[in-house]
Amino acid sequence: MRIELILIALAWGVIAGVLATLGAASLASLCSCLHGLVMGRWKRLADKTATGLIRPALLLRLIGQTALLALLCVFLIRFGHNYAHREFGFFYEGTSGILFAVGAGAAVIGRLRSARDRLARYWRMSHEFDYAEKRKRTRMLRS
Questions:
Q1: How many Å apart are CA 41 and CA 47, to the nearest integer?
Q2: Model pTM score
């Protein structure tokens, strides 16, 4: 096995693992935002004077951002797969497949905490009243 194929398998494995983790976290965040949107809509239908609800415009913006990020991750994984296969003759079998899996697994394990934190942040933005606005104001003051 050539050294360049080993490096390609490891590098593509790490990149694919990071993209897969980010894409999965984006899809989970998308589900969280959709749940917040449906939950808020249900509360408005049940009680016309309901207070403490997250604005639907904010939730739709979050849904758009997470959907675009998930689509970008899927597109990049597909592009990387085609590029590695076409340019380098990389196949997911044998030693190169094992090295790819090791690289992807290491990247996924390394990114799990940040993915969990990202999901918790999106959950709070889509379910806690005024959290997103406070976070936005704080970020504006720091910059």
A1: 10
A2: 0.84
